[in-house]
Amino acid sequence: MEKVIIHTEYIQLDQLLKFHGIISTGGQIKPLIEEGVIKINGIVCREKRKKVYPKDIVSVKGSEDIQVIYE
User: What is the tens place of the pLDDT at every residue in 10-55?
Assistant: First the structure.
């Protein structure tokens, strides 16, 4: 599991996926959302700007899970 450190209260899902290199632009998240391949804490996510908080685990089919950590 990859860990991503943030210094804010939360990070938006599209920003997290860009930061982690899964997508390169915000528009690339739309097909992933429509296909239902993104999960936050095991629940399919349908919002591209969903707030992801520390301790949340983001799963994208075909990629390693990401855990958000606050520092």
Answer: 999 999 999 999 999 989 999 999 999 999 999 999 999 999 999 9
Residue 69 · residue 1 · CB < 8 Å: no
Q: What's the pTM? A: 0.92
Residue whose C-alpha is closest to residue 48's, from 70, 58, 66, 1: 58
- Paired residues of 12 in beta bridges: 51
Rounded to whole angstroms, the Cα distance separating 16 from 32 reads 14
Between the alpha carbon of residue 70 and those of residues 10, 14, 18, 30, the distances in Å are 9, 18, 18, 27
Residue 26: per-residue pLDDT: 87
Q: Which domains does the chain have, with CATH numbers?
A: 2-70 (3.10.290.10)
